[in-house]
């Protein structure tokens, strides 16, 4: 079982979450046996549908899926779907927070991206335990996805048409972003100045 507020793993019969202190509902979610493949497939299918919506979703959506899965044994492919979903939402919410005004940060986005980050790291570690070689590609994919969302957000912020501006604007921004993947401070700062609006959380970090 996982807390619907913070995603923290709950101890059996726990009355309160050790992660955030929230009271645990008395209603217990029915767990699945490893043989209930149809049910697992249905939940994974639901995750794929949520992933395809390309919308901001609460971390409680994934927590609900994890609670529904219970102790079911997932395949690498199924676990990868959960990782993709968590990565997508973590990056979306993180970028939304970075684009919010530094003087009045989006607290909802901050809360959600932190919860999604926790879930993303937990699921990624589970996937890496099965396939160690995926850690580096997954980290790189996460950075590129965040960069993609940041570029799209900047274009929307500037009121420009994505299809007209993508060729002219994106090349320079991607150059800064790809350099930043090496964690070079100067490159990261250049990317921040190129992408995040003045006065935003991202520009001021």
SS field, number of helical segments? 8
**Strand percentage:** under 5%
Largest sheet: none
Number of strands: 0
Task: Determine Rg (CA atoms, Å).
Answer: 19 Å
Q: What order do the SSEs take from the amino end to the carboxyl end, as H and E?
A: HHHHHHHH
- Point out poorly predicted stretches: 25-34
- Helical residues, percent: 55-70%
Calculate the mean pLDDT score and round it.
Answer: 77
Structural class: mainly alpha
Q: Which overall shape is indicated by the principal axes computed on the Cα atoms?
A: elongated
Q: What is the rounded distance between the termini?
A: 36 Å
Number of structural units classed as domains: 2
Primary descriptors:
single chain; mainly alpha
Could you describe the 3D structure shown?
With 205 residues, this protein is an all-alpha fold. It has 2 domains: 1-30; 37-204, no CATH class. Helices cover 64% and strands 0% of the residues. It has helices at residues 37-52, 59-69, 76-98, 107-130, 135-157, 162-180, 185-195, 201-204. The longest helix has 24 residues, at 107-130. It starts with 36 loop residues before the first helix and ends with a helix.
Write the layout of secondary structure elements.
Elements (H helix, E strand, L loop, with lengths): L36 H16 L6 H11 L6 H23 L8 H24 L4 H23 L4 H19 L4 H11 L5 H4 L1
Helix pairs in contact: 1-2, 1-3, 3-4, 3-5, 5-6, 6-7
Provide a brief overview of the structure.
The protein has eight helices and no strands. The chain is an all-alpha fold and 205 residues long.
